[in-house]
Amino acid sequence: MTAHAAVRWTETADGRWVGSSGPELVGVVSWHHGYAVRSADGAVRGQHSTLDSAKAQLEGWVRWIDSVQG
Q1: Which helix (H) or strand (E) holds 65?
Q2: Which residues on adjacent β-strands are paired with residue 21?
Q3: How far apart are the C-alpha atoms of 30 and 64, rounded to whole Å?
């Protein structure tokens, strides 16, 4: 990921939300008795009651990765 890369969210036909930073897949949010988030590499996982909080977890992780790599 590049420094300060934003996560772009795309809703798929099956009701999942795919987060990308540039061409790189960073994670997926899906619904199953709550919003489950999982990073592409499996390092980040979580369960949330709202879509926004699930997205925020992954976005925060991307910002942290950018800060330690930059």
Answers
A1: helix 51-69
A2: 24
A3: 22
Q: What is the pLDDT of residues 26-61, one digit of tens each?
A: 999 999 889 999 999 999 999 999 999 999 999 999
Total-model pTM: 0.86
Report the alpha-carbon distance of residue 16 to residue 67 in Å, rounded: 28
pLDDT average, residue stretch 4-14: 86
Q: Comparing C-alpha atoms, which of 15, 67, 64 is closest to residue 56?
A: 64
Closest by Cα among 30, 32, 35, 33 to 17: 30
**What is the distance of C-alpha 59 from the center of its chain?**
6
| Number of C-beta neighbours around residue 48 at 10 A | 16
Q: Residue 26: name the closest of 61, 51, 64 by CA.
A: 61
Total number of residues shown for the chain: 70
